[in-house]
Amino acid sequence: MKITILGSGTCTPSLERNAAGVAIEAAGLLVLVDIGPGTIRRMCEAGIDPRSIDVIAITHFHVDHVSDLAAFLFASNYAYKSMREEPFHFVGPEGLEQFYKGLVAVYQDWIVPRGGRLRIRELKAQARDEFVLDGLRIVSGPALHYFPSLSYRIEAESAVVTITGDTDFSADVAELARGSDLFISECSMPEGRKVPGHMVPSEAGRTAALARAKKLVLTHFYPPCEEVDVAGQAGAFFSGEILKAVDLMTLEV
Ligand SMILES: [Zn+2]
Ligand SMILES: [Zn+2]
């Protein structure tokens, strides 16, 4: 399983940190978790062809996690080189259908993938749910952000990666991440500057420890996180390896 951090930032405009997006290549599939503004461009920079996306899993509907979706759908109908003919899957919390219909109401048929290639699957917002495609399993669970928000546990090739999306500290998210080879946790603000609905390094570290994750990657940084050693702050609570994400970082598990 290969993981590429496409965006380690937030809504804050930044050349260094794009808004949220993670690419996972496993079991012959390409999964994108979140598709914030600039994600498609970052995929091109990473050498990952956006036409090869099999699944887009949305954690929640904040703009920094979804706004490249319309651009992706519009591009999917543009037949330069060969247009993808296989279906692609769009999964996310309850409200996903309504969100998509809202986009179509604004952008009209231009963004409706021709040939019925788009498959939409809503996942439960208040309980565990799962989406399975070939050799890949995505388990979702509620995140503690605004409602509805999900965290995702992705299992393939005997490896497990869990991505929190935006969340406050949550024992449920730790349980979802249990035994993960890689735990990609939001860490929006440094210690002492907590914002409700998001985590600081000590909470990300405690979640990774509760989950007995093997490795912790911190991401989703607002600018104050650049001024301090957030990995060091999390390290007081988690004894495994901790990395501070940068855009285009790749990891293998
Ligand atoms: Zn966010
Ligand atoms: Zn959010």
Describe the structure.
The protein is α/β, with parallel strands linked by helices and about 250 residues long. It has helices at about 40-45, 65, 70-75, 95-105, 170-175, 200-210, 230-235, and strands spanning about 1-5, 20-25, 30-35, 55, 90-95, 120-125, 130-135, 135-140, 150-155, 160-165, 180-185, 215-220, 240-245, 250. Strands 6-5-4-3-2-1-14 form a seven-stranded mixed beta sheet. A seven-stranded mixed beta sheet has the order 7-8-9-10-11-12-13. The longest helix has 12 residues, at about 95-105. It is globular. The site of one zinc ion (ZN) has 4 residues, from loops.
Order of helices and strands: EEEHEHHEHEEEEEHEHEHEE
CATH topology: Metallo-beta-lactamase, Chain A
Helix content: 10-25%
CATH superfamily: Ribonuclease Z/Hydroxyacylglutathione hydrolase-like
CATH A-level architecture: 4-Layer Sandwich
Give a list of the ligands: zinc ion
Sheet-strand content, in percent, reads 25-35%
The pLDDT mean sits at: 96
